[in-house]
Design a protein that fits this description.
The structure holds two protein chains of two kinds.
Chain A: H1 2-18, H2 27-39, H3 51-72, H4 76-80, E1 83-90, E2 95-97, H5 99-112, E3 115-124, E4 127-136, E5 141-152, E6 155-162
Parallel strand pairs in A: 1-6
Antiparallel strand pairs in A: 1-2, 3-4, 4-5, 5-6
Chain B: H1 2-17, H2 21-25, E1 28-35, E2 40-42, H3 44-57, E3 60-69, E4 72-81, E5 86-97, E6 100-107
Parallel strand pairs in B: 1-6
Antiparallel strand pairs in B: 1-2, 3-4, 4-5, 5-6
Classes of the chains: A alpha+beta, B alpha+beta.
Amino acid sequence: MIVKIGWKFIIKIERLIIKKTFFLIDPHFLLTRCRIFYFNETFTPSHSPLKIKKNMIAKNAVLAEAYYKAMSEKDLPGTAKYLHPDVHFLTPFADIKGKEAVLGAIKGFISYLKNLKIRSKFEFGNQLTLVYDGDYPDPIGTVRTAALMTFKDDLIIDVELFFDARNFEKL
Amino acid sequence: MTKKNAVLAEAYYKAMNEKDLPGTAKYLHPDVHFLTPFADIKGKEAVLGAIKGFISYLRNLTIRSEFEFGNQLSLVYDGDYPDPIGTVRTAALMTFKDDLIIDVELFFDARPFEKK
């Protein structure tokens, strides 16, 4: 039912765009509708002019979740496939560029990681913010973390992490 | 409603940037919860006490990114503080209720503040 309602809504939006009245649409509302489609794992309207935008938004969220799932499972090759060759990685500990160097940093990070639980997710355009709790062995414990991610060519080109590095100084 | 939250968040941080504590206060819910690497406090007065200390050091605050969904909003900003602190990259997760901020969760590396 939600799918059908959503589908009709998209059709309506398309018609509005055709009439060049798209400026009347709240872009955020449009994006959130698209996200509802994604979270309900609905179909892709193949002939929709909104397909590219909708898929792009959903794809970034899927990519980010898959990236963190691989990390949570300590799967370094699985993590690697989501990284752009020129990825930039900025954390309180590191400011590095390039896939191999970033993978080196991630390798160290996931060796400590016990679990990673995503709490909130926001996306707009080619960027996405995630809030997650990283669970590490004692004495580190749980580290509240925010990530600002940028995507290019369906790959992660930039990751900026925000957390209190003092937690890791307990080691 | 969502747009209103973004406007409220920006006004809140503008007041903070201008060291305007009463201006900041008017955006806070009486039961606001404030979680940072330094504090986990609840209640408007207690939170204002923490903000007062924070803005006494703050020189400038530049919002870099802003994302919103429903009653939540995430902000990324650079806080500029006097030496030896410098620039502190910060992310904020904010929740709104009744057009007021009911929850603020800040993510930043607290180590630079230990230098002061």
